[in-house]
Write a structure and sequence with these properties.
Blueprint (H helix, E strand, L loop, with lengths): L5 H11 L14 E5 L2 E4 L4 E4 L2 H4 L8 H13 L11 H14 L3 E5 L2 H16 L3 E5 L8 H4 L9 H4 L7 E3 L8 H14 L3 E6 L3 E2 L5 E2 L2 H14 L2 E5 L23 E4 L11 E5 L1 H7 L12 H16 L2 H15 L8 E7 L2 E6 L5 H10 L2 E2 L6 E4 L7 H14 L1 H4 L2
Helix pairs in contact: 3-11, 4-11, 5-10, 8-9, 12-14
This protein binds pyridoxal-5'-phosphate.
Length: about 400
């Protein structure tokens, strides 16, 4: 690593590279290596990754089993087109995903947003209608159809008004059982039932729309209403899938099965971009020819890595690991409460501090980085969802940094 010049990387980055949700020139930190739960920066600093690279790296970095899967697949083929051709990594992955979800038909997409686009296409082709029903506070991706079902206030609607279709939004789903909310949801649904192609929600945990947890009764009610009216239910499990909330899928908290499910993020263990849209055989049958087909659909390298990642997940005691992380987050974030903090909440391997005012992202990051931790706060949220492999000691370092950084908030 001696020839890595951090300043050179930073200079080229600022000259040419656009980063997520960032202006043309953004402050970034060059990374040269990632191993286990640690990122090594070009300047030699080591950081414990509290973000699992946006929910994805559940097994940690540089995992020997995932590395071997990539290498083995590479010797056979890196990629072939999926139109008219097929291969073992893709069909094995589809079988595993079907077994895990109880949904028979699998479309392998190249990113989460595309998987949601495909889910919406399936619903439109299935019903001949195009209006969607969702709840406020959601996040479903950055492409146009997905943006239109993101939260209309804290999402990106205001920048793209006129370019987005108008869907039906129920109020924020509540954290506790609330019969009045369920009545309101029911009334709104009944008012629009005849024009709906589908209901789309993130089950139990709303991720990038606000890191909120809501009561399973909302899902149960939506499943009843959609079934009653022949409307499809789309579960966007891209963030919640594969154990993150303490159950394999968010829907499992309510014991429901959706008609369509979107998976992504942790599917390849954070190695490569691949996502999936699944639906029941009946829905697929009625749709017939599905009008979608990305160039890199079913990419063998990504599919082989996903197979290894899912194998590893099923082999590891993920339920106990997530429980242990949940307990560690709860204990470690107890000290985070102070003036300026509105809420501290934990579910599964997700820990959230919600502040009263928006945080200064750079200030928070500099503070936690000095304590050897990588976080990426946004808005009023300082949060962590570490790899499942994180040790108690490393987790305590993450929660310690999160708790300590709230001291910055109350300073005038
Ligand atoms: C991240 C995310 C997406 C979008 O996935 P990308 O791979 O970033 O396109 C969609 N839905 C949910 C719930 C997500 O968390």
């Amino acid at each position: 690593m001696a020839d890595v010049d951090a300043d050179e990387i930073r200079k080229l980055d600022q000259a040419h590279v656009w980063h997520p949700y960032a202006p043309p020139v953004a402050e970034t930190h060059p990374v040269v290596r990632a191993e286990g739960v640690r990122l090594t920066l070009a300047d030699g600093r080591e950081l414990i990754d509290g973000m699992a690279s946006w929910w994805a790296a559940i097994h940690g970095y540089n995992h020997p089993r995932l590395n071997a899967a990539v290498r083995d697949q590479l010797d056979d083929m890196a990629h072939v087109m999926f139109g008219g051709l097929t291969h073992e990594p893709a069909v094995r992955l589809a079988r595993t995903l079907s077994e895990l979800t109880g949904l028979d038909r699998v479309f392998l997409a190249d990113s989460g947003s595309v998987a949601v686009e495909v889910a919406i296409k399936i619903a439109i082709q299935h019903s001949g209608r195009s209006r969607l029903f969702t709840v406020r506070g959601g996040y479903h991706g950055d492409t146009f159809a997905t943006m239109a079902v993101c939260d209309p206030v804290n999402g990106m609607h205001h920048l793209f008004t006129g370019a987005l279709p108008r869907h039906v939004f129920a109020p924020l789903p509540p954290a506790a059982y609330d019969p009045d909310y369920l009545d309101e949801l029911t009334t709104l649904f009944h008012r629009h039932a005849d024009e709906l192609a589908a209901v789309i929600v993130e089950p139990i945990v709303q991720g990038a729309g606000g890191m909120r947890f809501y009561h399973p009764s909302v899902l149960t009610r939506l499943r009843e209403l959609t079934r009653e009216h022949g409307v499809l239910l789309i579960a966007d499990e891209i963030a919640t899938g594969f154990g993150r909330t303490g159950e394999m899928f968010g829907c499992d908290h309510a014991g429901i099965r959706p008609d369509i499910m979107c998976l992504g993020k942790a599917m390849t263990g954070g190695y490569m971009t691949m996502a999936a849209t699944l639906c029941t055989a009946e829905v697929a049958e009625r749709v017939g020819v599905l009008m979608h087909g990305p160039t890199f659909m079913g990419n063998p390298l990504a599919a082989a890595t996903a197979n290894a990642s899912l194998g590893l997940l099923l082999d590891r005691p993920w339920r106990e690991e997530v429980k242990r992380i949940e307990a560690g987050l709860r204990a470690g974030l107890e000290d985070a409460w102070r003036p300026g903090v509105r809420d501290v909440r934990v579910l599964g391997a997700i820990g959230v501090i919600e502040t009263v005012d928006p945080v200064d992202v750079t200030k928070v990051q500099d503070f936690v980085m000095r304590r050897g931790v990588w976080l990426r706060p946004f808005g009023r949220l300082i949060y962590a969802m570490p790899p499942y492999a994180i040790s108690d000691e490393d987790l305590a370092q993450v929660t310690g940094a999160m708790s300590a950084v709230t001291r910055l908030l109350t300073r005038p």
